[in-house]
Amino acid sequence: MDFSTHSSPSGAEPLTFIEMIDQTTIISLLSTLAILFTALGISKLVLDKHTPGRLRFLFVWHAFDALIHFILEGSFVWHCLCSSTSVREVKGDYFPTPYYYLGQDQKGRVWGSQAAVGQEGYLGAMAQLWMVYAKADRRWAGVDLATLSIEIITVVFGGVMAVLVCWDLARKNVARGNLAMIILATAELYGGYMTFMPEWLSGSANLDTSNFMYKWIFLAFFNGLWVVIPLYAIYVAGADIYDAIWVRSIVEEQKKDE
Asked: Where does it localize (predicted)?
């Protein structure tokens, strides 16, 4: 991914890598690891011990994918639709809300994670997490209509499809699992394209790639996972479907020769 290099949107001097490793950033990264280990634990519980390595890997990925969609991205959608506050209540810079968002005059108000900072409990913690990521991509602090539209279908459709893939792999329903993997992988690749292409075409105004953490970990690595692994899923599922069609064609030819 070729992210254009921009300094901090606020115009401040970029922070060093060490300066960015605060408690909230550590908790955010650890939460992602916790979700990954949860997915690994689920695979240990439900998969047959003789499951091929490629399918075990794809099960873990889709379990991780579903949890990310429901827990993390679901909280982003929630804050975009349900969390708002006065501009005066927001500390520092804020991401402006579209004027007629949700059919109402939003002058003087902001929506999204930036409006929920300071809340207690799960939703407040998720707001803090998204504000950490928003340091690299400002759109995730508030409501960007294109991003929110993609995230809504990602949570609802992508999350359910990822669960379906896991269900099929655990039940050894490989045929439907392969089809579901291809559909989901294609949707996620398209979603990633539609998330970043408008930003690149507009000069990456909301991206901060002024340092290693933002550019290579938050933007390149985490988003790159949803490019490389879906492509691998398409390759594995496509190969299985191709083999099945090839075997069927041989059987049909043999029947004709009888």
From this structure: Membrane
For the four alpha carbons of 105, 111, 115 and 120, in that order, the dihedral sign comes to positive
Q: What integer pLDDT is reported at residue 161 of this predicted model?
A: 98
- Give the global pTM: 0.88
Among 132, 118, 122, 44, CA closest to 78: 122
CB 177 within 8 A of CB 165: yes
CA–CA separation, 208 vs 169, rounded Å? 39
Q: Is residue 10's pLDDT more than 50?
A: no
Closest CA to 140 of 205, 87, 76: 76
% helix, strand, coil for the chain, step of 5 = 70, 5, 25
Backbone phi and psi for residue 116, each to the nearest 5 degrees, phi listed first = -110, 0
Q: Hey, what long-range contacts does 33-37 have (CB within 8 A, 24 or more apart)?
A: 35/64, 35/67, 35/68, 35/71, 35/72, 36/60, 36/64
Match 């804020």 to its residue by tokens. Answer: 94
**Do 111 and 83 contact (CB within 8 A), yes or no?**
yes
8 A C-beta contact, residue 124 and residue 116: yes
